[in-house]
Amino acid sequence: MSDNEQLGIRIMRRIQNVIHANTAELDAFDRPIGDGDHGTNMDRGFTAVLAKIESQPDQSLAAVFKTTAMTLISTVGGAAGPLYGTAFLRISTAIADLNDDHPQQVAAAFTAALGGVQDRGKATTGEKTMVDALASAAEATKAAAEEGADVVTMLERAATAARIGMAATIPMRATKGRASYLGERSIGHQDPGATSCYLIIQAVADVIRDGPAST
Questions:
Q1: Which of 69, 168, 189, 193 could bridge 88 with an S-S bond, Cβ 3.0-4.6 Å?
Q2: In which band, very low, low, confident or very high, does the pLDDT at 1 lie, cut at 50, 70 and 90?
Q3: Residue 2 has what DSSP assignment?
Q4: Distance CA 54, CA 59 (A)
């Protein structure tokens, strides 16, 4: 198995572990402003993703992202499945590898993911959605690429920016999705989609930082 193929499996194992560990918290964030099952849905989706990828271990990194996309679309309920599925599908076409030799592709991957989510969800920043975390991360990777940063630095900055974007959803009034029906009552709650988006980006950053020893 090549380093490329190992990387895809390591990334998805880490994401699945992180989502599983935070399932209850994600559901708790979703409960006041949604159906209360965002974590449960995401956990089911990434558990299915990992099973599919581990059963087909010789996929390229781009193929891993495509498999992830198709699996999430078919297993994750609500808006999250199509949105995350579209994000991973766009990434799969934008990136051939994810290592220190391809920093521009990392920025392109984030830009592609953001474009896919916005096209699918018709959302922009400031509307209390995963876009608030993802757009912040995309901007950070673009700036880091322009500075000539390596991939590890780019992803660490992306994770930090996503965390800030996630936290910024707390005082926002939701204007998209089910949360928008709550009006002013949506203020004061952290968006679960922005939270899972941050967790995924942080997981990827951790895998790249830790190298082959990561799981």
A1: 69
A2: very low
A3: -
A4: 10
Give the integer Cα–Cα distance in Å for 151 and 125. 25
- The residue to which tokens 């790249």 are assigned: 208
Q: Determine the pLDDT at residue 5.
A: 59
The Cα 87–Cα 78 span in angstroms is: 15
For 21-81, the DSSP string reads HTHHHHHHHHTTTS-S-HHHHHHHHHHHHHHHHHHSTT--HHHHHHHHHHHHHHH--TTHH
Question: What domain count does the chain have?
Answer: 1
Where in the sequence is the domain holding 100, given as residue range(s)? Answer: 3-213
Length of the chain (residues)? 215
Is residue 112 within 8 A of residue 90, CB to CB? The reply is yes
Asked whether the beta carbons of 49 and 67 are under 8 A apart, the reply is yes
pTM > 0.85: yes or no: yes
For residue 142, the domain's CATH number is 1.25.40.340
